[in-house]
Amino acid sequence: MAGEINFNTAAGISCCSVYHFQRMFSFMTEIPLSEYIRRRRLTLAAFELQQSEIKVIDLALKYGYESPEAFTRAFQKIHGVTPTLARQKGIYLKSYPRLSFHITIRGEEEMNYKIIEKEGFTVFGVEEIFSIENGENLRCIPQMWERLLSDGTVERIGQASGRVWNKFSSGIMPVNAVMCHREEKANRFPYMICGFMPESGHLNTEDYTVVDIPTLTWAVFTTEVAHIQILWKRIYTEWFPISSYEPLSGPQLEMYGVAEGGKRYCEVWIPVAHK
């Protein structure tokens, strides 16, 4: 845990992109990769403080902190005491163990999916950047939907797409979402609430972000809208490990629909290739 950890190397060993590696790690362990690394480093640092005479400045550099002050703030946030106090006997400290793997029995619950090939298409909409740190994306993406629904943006996107939709309509709705359509800094990804470009091609895109989705093979999963976050986790922890496909870097889609009878559902689209 000391020294620099190269996420690109770790992702390469796992045969996936850095983003997919971090996301899969978070789904499987329920903690972001960066937070796991931080906790483990500060656990080892606490052991060293009590077992050696190493200087705080040297310990800070060893575990990747640019200054003793930054190390002290991070240490105190985890352990509740400063590194100096941590040297004393009788001080309570926190220990975060290494990850361990256990066999669990799963598979009793079905997953609905299909593999399709779709020619390239274009979407437009409103984009924001989110982080997977501390579950920010899980909190903030629903808030984004609520905000753009309440201010009329979602309705305007639907109208601009040219698709006719009313309370009796069924199938995929005019406004959906695309994410990860370009690379961002570590732990961050773009998420866009979007509509399909109208067939006429006539659209004033000045107020919108436009994204071209290439021709891809997609794994498409279906669930109830309320279970969308659970589905994302199951795809990466249950489906990909046993399927003959692997995820590709590139855009991922959340498509919202209404079945006959008015029941709402959601489709998750992930670009894939044969292993």
CATH class of the largest domain: Alpha Beta
Low-pLDDT segments = none
CATH architecture of the largest domain: Alpha-Beta Barrel
* Number of self-contained structural domains: 2
Ends distance: 31 Å
Order of helices and strands: HHHHHHEEHHEEEEEHEEE
Largest sheet geometry: 10 strands, antiparallel
How many helical elements? Answer: 9
> What's the overall geometry?
elongated
Description:
α1 crosses α2 and α4 crosses α5. The radius of gyration is 23 Å and the shape is elongated. Strands 1, 2, 3, 4, 5, 6, 7, 8, 9 and 10 form a 10-stranded antiparallel sheet that branches. The two termini are 31 Å apart. It folds into 2 domains: 80 residues, Homeodomain-like (Arc Repressor Mutant, subunit A), CATH 1.10.10; 163 residues, Regulatory factor, effector binding domain (Multidrug-efflux Transporter 1 Regulator Bmrr, Chain A). The model has no long low-confidence stretch (mean pLDDT 86). 36% of the residues lie in helices and 25% in strands. The chain contains 9 helices and 10 strands. With 275 residues, it is α+β, with helices and mostly antiparallel strands.
